[in-house]
Specification:
This protein has 292 residues and is an alpha+beta fold. One of its GO terms (cellular component) is CD40 receptor complex.
């Protein structure tokens, strides 16, 4: 009898366990009870068939069915540590932190540290670009090639100097080769051409300046000549105007010409005054009224 009882108990327990779906139910007090769905937590488990559940808070999540009364915390992504800020993280799955552009996570599963991508220097090229989970990889430029800036995608080949050109500067991993004309006659021709061009410019400039100055001198001479002619004409007009004024009537030297008596050359009684011999001037004396 005892063996039969144990066998029945085992069969019953196996039946109960097999009836409970492990993903959505759990066994409690020999009963198959429901769990709370993803994004929720169990608030009270007083009703096995219909438990009371509550949504997870912001920054929390629950990825599957659960009988727990707490949700899992989302990781804190600090922007000061070069993480991207999480906008509305999920409540039903883990939202991993992601690094900012130019940085990558040191661990794939748990991104807890962001490290800056390696910068390929001049003289190198990028053979693998960095991502949010991996670093960039660089390779040195091969002989005969170069790169001049950071993070170059390719290395350029050196310039090939053509026939008649010399290498003025050899190429390196960070600079190109510089070629110059190596033919002496060619250099002389270039020098003579430049000199002739400069002389032509100087000659043309001198001619233009000379023509400009000649024109200015001619205009100045014409202006001075016109002023001189005008002055001469004005002087002639003035001379003709004052000539009649300078012509005085000539004095008659004949002493026989009678002089009209005036107040200055007659006496008080009306007799003319005669000049005495040997005197230059005539003095008037009062006449005597006595009768001769």
């Amino acid at each position: 009898m005892r063996g039969l009882f144990i066998l029945c108990a085992l069969v019953t327990l196996f039946y109960l366990v097999s009836c409970c779906e492990k993903e959505t139910h759990y066994l409690k007090d020999d009963k198959c009870c429901k769990m709370c769905g993803p994004g929720k937590r169990m608030l009270v488990d007083d009703n096995c068939e219909d438990p009371r559940c509550q949504d997870c808070e912001d920054g929390e999540y629950q990825s599957g069915y659960t009988s727990k009364n707490k949700c899992e915390r989302q990781p804190s992504c600090d922007t000061n540590l070069h993480f991207l800020s999480q906008m509305n993280p999920s409540k039903t799955s883990l939202s991993k932190c992601q690094c900012q552009r130019g940085y990558y996570c040191t661990q794939d599963d748990d991104c807890d540290t962001c490290r800056e991508h390696t910068v390929c220097k001049p003289g190198q090229k990028v053979i693998k670009k960095g991502s949010s989970v991996s670093d960039a990889e660089c390779e040195a430029c091969k002989n005969g090639t170069f790169s001049t800036h950071d993070s170059a995608d390719t290395c350029k080949e050196w310039t090939i100097c053509e026939h008649g050109y010399d290498k003025n500067a050899p190429g390196s991993s960070t600079s190109d080769r510089i070629c110059v004309d190596g033919t002496p006659n060619r250099r002389v021709e270039i020098g003579l051409g430049v000199a002739a061009f400069l002389l032509a410019i100087i000659a043309v400039t001198g001619v233009l300046v000379w023509l400009k100055n000649s024109k200015s001198c001619k205009e100045f001479s014409q202006k001075i000549t016109g002023i001189s002619i005008t002055r001469l004409e004005q002087d002639a007009d003035v001379e003709r105007a004052i000539q009649p004024l300078n012509q005085q009537p000539e004095e008659d030297d004949d002493d026989s010409t009678p002089v009209s008596p005036t107040l200055s050359n007659v006496t008080e009684n009306g007799y003319p005054v005669q000049q005495e011999h040997g005197k230059e001037s005539v003095s008037s004396h009062p006449e005597s009224n006595s009768v001769l």
